[in-house]
Specification:
Pfam families: Pyridoxal_deC. The protein has 465 residues and is of the alpha/beta class. The protein is 32% helix and 13% strand.
Length: 465
């Protein structure tokens, strides 16, 4: 019961050979490699992910409802220890205490700071969560506005929309390693978009930013600053970006900065005071289901209160005003976030951050000692390594892969035991893939740097510290 099978029809996304542009890619357009257009309209066969017998509602020719659900729960329980490729804290401890809330429909429609005529909401919890983050990111409570979103993408959409409303003719700048939702925002809002190059570690190329700012000097700048890139965990340097704006002649009334801190917004503040509204930033967003953990996707978006009037509209139907993206919002998520923040506290976060950094370094060192190409950025818990050669291995460990890279995100619920199991499995499989050294692993120097690559060409200079 609950066994997992890797279906034959599973096809991971194809890797495009370098130098070839796939169909639908705008090479010289505004979105460059960040935007892929129309996917082939050829019908595809439904892909079965898990070995579950789920019948269509209303049909009685399959297992009972309870049996189907128990099978699903058993499968997920088995898969927890193999979830290492995506930034989700899936070890959530408070579900039993909060389960009684599922009997209520909770809808936080409209502005979280204004009540409306319906009592089934959790805005008091929502404001308490927002106040906690306002303190963390150093903005006075009477100076901010925010809400609990449905995830990091909505936070990016909202933050960039605020910037667009302040500067309707502004140009959106984002690095090529920014989350894909940033390019999505540019497309949705019909914004002019400048795609900034990224360095080998994933950080924004500030010289390219400077060149493009000077090129567009006549228009305001809306800049997406990534505090921890999706794949490599690189952190764009906010201070360098602010200095670059100043050097290019942009005053504070000519730019808006949105900080996408989806994963790192609850990590970096406990290491380095980098995310703060004491600097001229416009908004910050995080994903609540990532480092903190929540059974459903959610996020937190905070901006300056003086900016929100550009978006707020009175809605008589709900007896409130609304400046959110989604309107109706999950009323359960603020309570889950509030409970976790209250139970964990600052000391709990500091312990989680330290453990994750220690475990990420442990994984990186173990892989490096085994002669595997690997990279770990400063201030990151994302370990980037050479892409496994076998689709079933990628699927078993639920890895995210880009080009010749894969990564492991060392979240709070990932133990040394899990990492040891991954390392052992990887080393065993590599013997088969590379025939005990008769075949050389691929060169990934262009992806993670020559100093991190252990291919036959670069390993001569490879020295284990």
């Amino acid at each position: 019961m609950g066994s997992l099978s890797f279906e034959k029809d599973f096809e991971p996304s194809a890797v495009t050979p370098r130098g070839l542009a796939p169909p639908g890619l705008i090479v010289n357009g505004d979105f460059s490699e960040m935007m892929r257009l129309k996917v082939s309209s050829t019908p595809t066969t439904p892909r079965k992910n898990l070995n579950l017998s789920v019948t269509e509602p209303g049909k009685n020719d399959g297992p009972s409802l309870d049996c189907t659900l128990m099978n699903y729960i058993d499968t997920l329980t088995q898969r927890i220890n193999y979830h290492i490729g995506y930034p989700v804290n899936i070890c959530y401890e408070h579900y039993a205490n909060l389960a009684p809330l599922l009997q209520f429909h909770l809808n936080n429609c409209g502005d979280p700071f204004l009540q409306n005529t319906v009592d089934f909401h959790s805005k008091d919890f929502e404001v308490a969560v927002l106040n906690w983050f306002a303190d963390l990111w150093e903005i006075e409570r009477d100076q901010y506005w925010g809400y609990v979103t449905n995830g990091g993408t909505e936070g990016n959409l909202h933050g960039i929309l605020v910037g667009r409303e302040i500067f309707p003719t502004g140009i959106l700048y984002a690095s090529k390693d920014s989350h894909y939702s940033v390019a999505k925002a540019a497309m949705m809002y019909r914004m002019d978009f400048e795609n900034i190059n990224a360095s080998i570690n994933g950080e924004m190329d500030y010289s390219d930013l400077k060149a493009k700012l000077l090129q567009n000097k006549g228009k305001p700048a809306i800049i997406n600053v990534t505090i921890g890139t999706t794949f490599k965990g690189a952190v764009d340097d906010l201070d360098v970006i602010l200095q670059t704006l100043e050097e290019c002649g942009y005053t504070q009334d000519q730019f808006y900065i949105h900080c996408d801190a989806a994963l790192n917004g609850l990590i970096i503040p406990f290491i380095k005071n980098m995310i703060t509204f004491k600097k001229p930033i416009g908004s910050v967003t995080i994903s609540g289901h990532k480092f903190l953990g929540c059974p459903m996707p959610c996020g937190v978006q905070i901006t300056r209160k003086s900016y929100i009037n550009n978006l707020s509209r009175r809605v008589e139907y709900i007896a409130s005003v609304d400046a959110t993206i989604s309107g109706s919002r999950n009323g359960l998520t603020p309570i889950f976030l509030w409970y976790s923040l209250s139970a964990k506290g600052q000391i709990g976060f500091q312990k989680d951050v330290k453990r994750c950094f220690d475990n990420a370094k442990y994984l990186k060192d173990r892989l490096q000692q085994a002669g595997i190409s690997v990279m770990l950025n400063e201030l990151s818990i994302i370990v980037v390594l050479e892409r496994p050669r076998d689709h079933e291995f990628v699927r078993r460990w639920q890895l995210s892969c880009v080009r010749d890279m894969a990564h492991v995100i060392v979240m709070p619920g990932i133990t040394r035991e899990t990492l040891d199991g991954f390392i052992t499995d990887l080393l065993q499989q590599r013997k088969k893939w590379y025939q005990d050294g008769r075949i050389s692993p691929p060169c990934v120097a262009s992806d993670i740097g020559a100093q991190n690559c252990t291919c036959s060409y670069h390993k001569i200079d490879f020295i284990i510290p």
